[in-house]
Design goal:
Helix 6 packs parallel to helix 7. It contains 16 helices and twelve strands. The protein has three domains: 117 residues, Orthogonal Bundle (Methyltransferase, Methionine Synthase (B12-binding Domains), Chain A, domain 1), CATH 1.10.1240; 142 residues, Cobalamin-binding domain (Rossmann fold, 3-Layer(aba) Sandwich); 146 residues, Alpha-Beta Plaits, CATH 3.30.70. It has 437 residues and is of the alpha/beta class. The strands form three sheets. The chain has a five-stranded parallel β-sheet, sandwiched between helices. A five-stranded mixed β-sheet has the order 9-10-8-11-12, with helices on both faces.
Length: 437
């Protein structure tokens, strides 16, 4: 039988699904009317009610665009209408890209994304690329209609950790099979995922198939955590199967040069906008990140604690963490060794605190961690875990002293209280946790 928790969550899920469906209908209306302002308004409303950018992609934009595609195939809308809808959605995706960017650029493995030869719809692939890039992956985006030779050369040169191939329209399945073989041949450790409605069932048993941008992060993580793949036997079977078309089908939209050029201009403009967003993130990273410890710096800490100690903010706690006898490290082993130690301490702190907590180096050998929502008892437990982890995982051995205080309505008062507790820990013999209300 379903659990009581699961049963209690069903009404909330149904309400959320209904809200997404209503927003998707309104978004579709905006696309059919060619109203970019209305499409942007629907997106802003979705964000305002807490819908994640990836969910907006998957539950609002994608269904509406699929409906536009169905109407085009039925002759109910023109090629120009379809291209205009794509242009509007491309602009909306740029708005969401800024909100998706939550991790340091290129802080994780590389992922190559390409639509195989003969595939010309790239919007869904762009959604997946934005989600991955926002999560810190180095995305190598080749776009639509990638010839198998070019794909093989690119994979051979760049050796991506994961390759994603799109096959959304059932045209020439030989192109998909050839692309899969090319990736296997060119990769030292091939890991593939597929996407698109037209992926044959026989391949779905061998490779993960990503149905939407909501699933791509978990699919990539699963691939990275597993062994390299072997060529699926079904791939060879596809090549031996039905006769190959005499020539590739024409690209959707052929015959309306103005509409096609509009789509190209919009895509170029969207990529320029993404480049500015990336540049902004780099500059923000330079301003808010400590280069020695490779973690947020004092300015980022001041911004965060200022928000969390404002009147009306939720409860929480602050840890002030100081490396014991750090001066001796610099004096006996040199400043390079001291910098390496600070980097290791910062990494252990970041890995030990809870998801949603925030850690920063605030100067010298002192670090801080903000624990939103944590009562004093839980904050002490987290502090003890941090202290024990540093003592156990860093060699040569080093210890830290930690002061704990509850967040007050004033950032300065909170820091003074935590500093006072840290002083008590130092006076009591170091390598311990002290707390104050």
């Amino acid at each position: 039988m379903p659990s009581r928790k699961a049963a209690s969550e069903r009404p909330a899920r149904r309400a959320s699904d209904a809200a997404s469906a209503a927003l998707a209908r309104r978004y579709g209306d905006a696309l059919r009317a060619g109203d970019s302002a209305m499409a942007a308004q629907v997106t802003d409303e979705a964000l305002a009610i807490g819908t994640s950018p990836a969910a907006i992609q998957a539950l609002i934009i994608a269904p509406a665009m699929e409906r536009i595609g169905d109407l085009w195939q039925q002759g109910a809308v023109s090629v120009a209408d379809e291209h205009l809808a794509t242009a509007i959605s491309s602009g909306v995706l740029v708005r969401l890209f800024d909100a998706l960017s939550v991790a340091r650029a290129r802080s994780r493995e590389s992922v190559l994304l390409a639509e195989v030869a003969g595939q010309h719809h790239v919007l869904g692939l762009r959604m997946v690329a934005d989600v991955l890039e926002g999560a810190g992956f180095d995305v190598l985006f080749l776009g639509a209609d990638v010839p198998v030779g070019a794909l093989r050369s690119f994979v051979s040169e760049h050796q991506p950790a994961v390759t994603g191939l799109g096959f959304g329209i059932d045209t020439d399945v030989h192109s998909l099979a050839e692309a899969i073989i090319a990736v296997h041949d060119a990769s030292a450790e091939p890991r593939l995922m597929l996407g698109g409605h037209a992926v044959p069932a026989s391949l779905r048993e061998c490779y993960p198939v990503v149905a939407s941008s909501l699933e791509v992060l978990s699919a990539v993580e699963l691939l990275l955590g597993g062994p390299p793949q072997q060529v699926c036997p079904a791939v060879a079977a596809l090549l031996r199967g039905a006769a190959r078309p005499a020539r590739p089908p024409p690209a959707p939209g052929t015959g309306d040069a103005v509409a096609e050029r509009l789509a190209e201009v919009v895509e170029e403009s969207a990529e320029v906008a993404r480049s500015y967003i990336r540049q902004k993130q780099v500059l923000s990273d330079l301003a808010l990140r400590d280069p020695v410890a490779d973690m947020p710096n004092r300015r980022a800490f001041d911004d965060r604690i200022g928000l969390l100690t404002a009147p009306g903010s939720e409860a929480g706690a602050l840890l002030m963490i100081d490396v014991d006898e750090f001066k001796q490290v610099n004096d006996t082993r040199g400043h390079d060794a001291g910098d390496q130690l600070l980097r290791r301490v910062g990494k252990v702190i970041t890995q030990t605190i809870r998801p949603g907590d925030f850690a920063a180096r605030i100067g010298g050998d002192e670090f801080a961690a903000i624990l939103p929502g944590a009562p004093l008892g839980n904050a002490r437990e987290v502090a003890d875990r941090v202290r024990e982890a540093i003592a156990a995982r860093i060699a040569p051995a080093v210890t830290v002293s930690i002061g704990v205080a509850l967040l007050a309505d004033d950032a300065r008062a909170t820091m003074l209280a935590a500093d006072g507790a840290l002083y008590e820990a130092k006076v009591a013999g170091r390598n311990r946790v002290a707390a104050t209300l």
